[in-house]
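#lab-general

N.A. 3:47 PM
ok so I finally got the sequence cleaned up, no stray characters, all 317 residues accounted for. can someone with queue access submit it? mine expired

B.Y. 3:52 PM
send it over

N.A. 3:53 PM
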Amino acid sequence: MSTKTEKIDRLASLMQQHETTVGASLWREAFRRLKASKMAVIGAAIIGVFVVVAIVGPWVAPHSPSAQIWRGEVLVNQGEFVGARGENWFGLDHLGRDMFSRFLVGARQTLLVGVVSMLIGLVVGALIGVASGASATLGGRAGQRVDNVIMRFIDMMLSLPSLLLAVSIAAVMGQSLTTVMIAVGVVQIPIFARLLRGSMLAQGGSDYVLAAKALGVRKKRIVLTQILPNSLSPVIVQATLSLATAIIEAAALSYLGLGNPDPAVPEWGVMLSQAQRFFDNAPMMAVYPAVGIIITALGFTLLGEAMREALDPKLRG
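B.Y. 4:20 PM
back already:
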């Protein structure tokens, strides 16, 4: 009996080592394709610039983002906003604050909201997806029932427009930056959950899973060491794409007045909301944060699409 058990454990270990080696080679091949992809390089460069600006922005900003140093100039010349000049590269806003400094500092808030929102959706969605996928794959009839209950709840969340769901959550929880993060993160949960669950179901019928079952490997071990690691590729790609979506949706909530209640704290969505009243006289107040949001979202989208092509064997040239 002990000899048979030792053989099973040995075969399972060899099988796991093989899958790890194959998985590592697939990731190396994907990384090689990413380095050769112009789309990936451009996306990574945009993201790199955005992250650097978000990190060092508060230290390199020439002025305090909340200081109304030139308020006198705005009050004297009502209706005529000060445009770009030597000491104010992006001009002044309606309260006489330096727009360039607010743009730099606002990048950190925008990055923080996007990353935290994505992580909330990824972690919670992955936990739900693993529970549902494992139940459907190896749980038998009872597992199928659990999977059905979870998926019907996920379907209800997916049936609601994402922005409407985020606005509803933010309106209930109250106006704050934390509310925006939670609202946008909750919207991402069903996407990650269904994606990981579907990927695990696809992996559940693979030969290595059938071999593990035949060897008597425990279900929990099969899920954690075999199915789950091989199901993460589409989730990683979706996480990159979700960052772009999270930044746009967070900016939309801030634009609607559901973000940070303190208007002195710069954030690109808040800056857009403040600029809408003065668009006729000072359109550049809205152009700078809008371009920042668009380019940043473009960077994450380009990198995410390049990763999808590199990891999906059907899309490889």
